[in-house]
Design a protein that fits this description.
- This protein is mainly α.
- The chain has 16 helices and two strands.
- The chain has helices at residues 2-31, 34-46, 48-61, 65-86, 92-103, 111-114, 117-120, 126-154, 157-176, 191-204, 206-237, 241-264, 270-290, 294-322, 328-356, 358-379, and strands at residues 396-398, 403-405.
- The protein has a two-stranded antiparallel sheet.
- A hairpin with a 4-residue loop joins strand 1 (396-398) and strand 2.
Length: 406
């Protein structure tokens, strides 16, 4: 079952990683408008902040979450095809609206899968399975944009969008047969109340709270590295394409680091790993800012990647350990939404900084990683005296259903 899950999750995440760059290239090729192309990409990502919590409620309420994931995959793929078919035919506003609606389903392609991992493997195998799951993000982050670029260059941007949809469809069978929950859950009242419960689960649990905030801030810093990489490649190697190579090196190093984590199994203190890995990302970003040669920039990319891989694994491990079972999907999809939104904010800030100076943008990105660690430390302090003695999962009270769950 784990093998089938991994195949489905990898196909889904690779299709997701392909979809943005492919849509960007297709929009530019068909309409010739960089404004529309960038607006389509922005529309596809900006709505994730709304979609994540809503999808989490739906996944947590159903006994067959795999069926929900399957419908989300189909809906996301259908939305991409509608945008593709409408390029040059439908008004720009309509296309952007479809992209926004499609983006609502985006968190299901990532966090929605990871939340179901405890249904696939027993508790004793969860740490290793969690590391393998995080590796699929690294593989998708490396393969998705590369495949999109290759197909767009050899065939067309439209073909790249179609290929991303094909990968989403390929993930459907694995999603559809994910295990069902052993017990049907009671409906817990209004969706708004359920969303609020999901946010409370994150805010009231010290481990979830600090991991979520630190990873959000860190993602903004990662965005600064991603945006600045092409300019760094241009400055050090004379070609912006070398910046893409630096990002590929980062993804490869993240994959290798997670392979080590997976092999080591349970011998990790995940809260500590989260902090150390964030510091490594900051160190790699700072080294890139100071790089005087492309070789040093490659070394910086390796350091950043060694941090990025275990950081994601540690974040997932903390969520699996701390999230209340009834709210697990909400914790994962809400966390995914927050990180996507933070990446968008970091990208917006990085643009003007990188235009002024790539080094300044990279140093700012390194500073953001330090800010993430500082926030982690501050949020480690208990807010109430009784929290000093509470290290387990948050207590979730449900007044409407009349139960208390730990």
């Amino acid at each position: 079952m784990l093998t089938r899950y991994m195949i489905g999750a990898l196909a889904s995440r690779t299709g997701d990683e392909m979809s943005g760059p492919a849509l960007l290239v297709a929009g530019l090729a068909v309409t010739g408008s960089p404004v529309l192309a960038s607006a389509l990409l922005a529309g596809l990502t900006v709505s994730a902040a709304v979609g994540g919590p809503l999808l989490g409620v739906l996944l947590d309420r159903t006994r067959r979450p795999g069926r929900v994931l399957g419908w989300c995959l189909a809906g996301y793929g259908a939305g991409l095809l509608v945008v593709l078919a409408g390029l040059g035919r439908l008004p720009d506003a309509a296309l952007i609206g479809v992209a926004v609606l499609t983006g609502l389903l985006g968190p299901s392609l990532n966090g929605g899968w990871t939340a179901q991992l405890p249904l696939v493997v027993p508790d004793g195998r969860l740490p290793r399975a969690n590391a393998l799951d995080a590796m699929s993000y690294n593989v998708a982050g490396l393969a998705g944009p590369a495949l999109a670029g290759l197909i767009a260059a050899v065939v067309s941007g439209q073909a790249a969008v179609a290929a991303s949809v094909a990968l989403l469809v390929a993930a459907l069978p694995a999603a559809w047969v994910l295990p069902r929950r052993r017990e049907r859950r009671e409906q817990a009242g209004a969706v708004r109340a359920e969303i609020a419960a999901g946010f409370r689960a994150i805010v009231r649990n010290r481990s979830l709270r600090r991991a979520t905030v630190a990873s959000m801030i860190s993602m903004a810093g990662v965005a600064m590295l991603v945006v600045t990489a092409p300019l760094l490649g241009l400055r050090l190697a004379g070609d912006a394409g070398y910046g893409a190579l630096l990002l590929a090196v980062t993804a490869g190093a993240a994959l290798a680091a997670n392979a080590v984590v997976a092999r080591a199994g349970t011998r990790w203190r995940w809260d500590t790993v989260l902090v150390v890995s964030t510091l490594l990302i900051g160190a790699g970003t700072a080294l890139a800012a100071l790089a005087g040669s492309f070789a040093v920039a490659v070394a910086a990319a390796v350091v950043a990647g060694v941090g990025e891989g275990p950081q994601l694994t540690a974040l997932f491990a903390v969520r699996h350990r701390e999230a209340p079972e009834r709210l697990r999907s909400q914790v994962f999809t809400t966390g995914a939404s927050l990180k996507i939104t933070s990446f968008a904010a970091g990208s917006a800030l990085a643009g003007p900084l990188a235009a002024h100076s790539p080094a300044v943008a990279l140093l700012a990105g390194a500073g953001v990683q330090l800010l993430a660690v500082a926030a982690y430390g501050l949020l480690s302090l208990p807010r109430r005296p009784e929290e000093r003695h509470q290290e387990g999962p948050v207590v979730v009270e449900d007044d409407q259903a009349g139960r208390v769950e730990r």
